[in-house]
Design brief:
The protein is 51% helix and 17% strand. By secondary structure, it is of the alpha+beta class. The longest helix is centred in the middle third of the chain and has 34 residues, at 89-122. The strands form 2 sheets. Strands 3-9-8-7-4-5-6 form a 7-stranded mixed beta sheet, sandwiched between helices. It contains 10 helices and 9 strands. It has 2 domains: 6-87, Winged helix-like DNA-binding domain superfamily/Winged helix DNA-binding domain (Arc Repressor Mutant, subunit A); 131-268, Endonuclease Chain A (Endonuclease, Chain A, 2-Layer Sandwich). A hairpin with a 3-residue loop joins strand 7 and strand 8 (226-231). It has helices at 11-14, 18-26, 30-42, 47-54, 58-70, 89-122, 136-148, 160-180, 196-201, 252-268; strands spanning 74-77, 83-86, 131-134, 153-157, 183-189, 205-209, 217-222, 226-231, 246-249.
Amino acid sequence: MKVIVQENVSILHQYQPLWRLLRAYLGFSEYEAKIYEFLVNEGPSTARKISIRCGVPRTKVYSVIRRLMEQNMVTELPLSPRLFIALSPTETLKPLIDIQEKIVEQLNEVFLHLQKKYEESTESKVLREEVWILTGERALRKVTDLLLSAGKNVEFFSSWEYFLHVYGFLREVLDTLFEKGVSVRLYFPSGSKVNKKVCRAMCLQYRIVRNLPLSATLIISIDNNCIILHPNTIESENNSPQESEWVIVCGKKLVNVLNKILSYFKRENSH
């Protein structure tokens, strides 16, 4: 039987005394487990000694020993006074362990069968959608990692004012994307007071999109496979990228819907 040991600590040291394991895993009662372990450790013993050392009431010790004898765990030596001795764990416990292993093997087959049927029945009916809402350093690390994973293109949708608000956080990431040859494009709604000189200095490619429904919100599309939203207002108390929420959408269906909406504004309302 395989036993997983963590950090080289034996399960025997983790779960002393052993009778608790016999009770938990092999169906012994508390008194049965205590008596069997005691007899394995001590050898032939009288009922009186067993009762005292195992904490089993004298009125119950014989009935417990009898059950163990019926289960071929213990035998009686024909001496006076009567002595009881445990049979070898190879004879008593190994068959029980073999049965447990068979049960586990059969349960594993049941599990694999059910898992296969589940995947077949849900393959085209259920689509897993992944959405995270993160804040703080964890959010910034996740956003940075996703941006740096871009292989082809990254698109930003935001007002000019709000893009400047988060540019301090994005600057180094954008520089890395430029060095990798990733296409970076920005889309601003009409009415944004874009500073063309600043854009040229930042090497930013941008387009003005009419009726783009954005004010103080940033949307980032990465290789059309992931969408990042940073909904916030510049005037709010939590106005820094570190303090506000970032929504990350990686579910295929949701990303496709959002990309179709963004594509509509790029295609129909740009100038």
